[in-house]
């Protein structure tokens, strides 16, 4: 009885493990709904991007008018007081510092610089050893 049950379970498991579904589900209403939603989202995104571009253009036009007015007044020092100019100068200074730090790091990781440093240390050591190894002449006062 136990053997027959195990055999039956093994046969059922063999058949079940090889079975699979091959029926394709076609949902045209769901596809149409998703397509409409995607088109609506894309349209809203395009409107948002167009509004953002218009805002940026208006801001740029305002800055341009301020620069023209300051140039007409003949006060170039007042250009530094414009909105955003200080931020741009700060970003440029940060970029310069980061570039300088990066270049210093590159020299630290360059094997040629270590080779030069080691050769310099070795030459200094050789000179000191050769100076000490030369016999000193002793002068006697008579």
Would you give an account of this structure?
It is a single chain. The chain is mainly α and 142 residues long. Among the domains are: 41 residues; 46 residues. The protein contains four helices and no strands. The termini are far apart.
How do the helices and strands line up, and which of them pair or pack?
Blueprint: H1 2-18, H2 28-73, H3 85-108, H4 111-133
Shape: flat
Rg over CA atoms, rounded to whole Å, is: 41 Å
Low-confidence spans: pLDDT under 50, at least 5 residues? none
Which class best fits the helix and strand makeup? mainly alpha
Query: Could you give the count of β-strands?
Result: 0
Q: Report the order of strands and helices.
A: HHHH
Q: Helicity, in percent?
A: over 70%
Largest sheet: none
Mean pLDDT: 77
Give the oligomeric state of the chains in this entry, treating copies of one chain as homo and distinct chains as hetero: single chain
In percent, how much strand structure appears in the residues?
Answer: under 5%
Considering the chains and any ligands shown, give keywords for the structure.
142 residues, mainly alpha, 4 helices
What is the compact description of this entry?
The chain is mainly alpha-helical.
């Amino acid at each position: 009885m136990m053997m027959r049950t195990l055999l039956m379970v093994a046969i059922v498991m063999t058949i079940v493990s090889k079975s699979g579904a091959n029926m394709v589900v076609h949902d045209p209403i769901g596809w149409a709904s998703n397509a409409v939603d995607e088109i609506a989202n894309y349209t809203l995104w395009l409107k948002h991007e167009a509004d953002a571009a218009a805002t940026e253009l208006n801001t740029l036009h305002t800055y341009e008018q301020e620069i023209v007015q300051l140039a007409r007044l003949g006060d170039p020092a007042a250009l530094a007081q414009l909105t955003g100019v200080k931020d741009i100068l700060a970003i440029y200074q940060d970029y310069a510092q980061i570039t300088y730090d990066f270049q210093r790091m590159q020299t630290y990781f360059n094997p040629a610089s270590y080779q030069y440093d080691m050769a310099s240390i070795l030459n200094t050591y050789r000179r000191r050893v050769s100076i000490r190894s030369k016999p000193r002449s002793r002068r006697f006062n008579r």
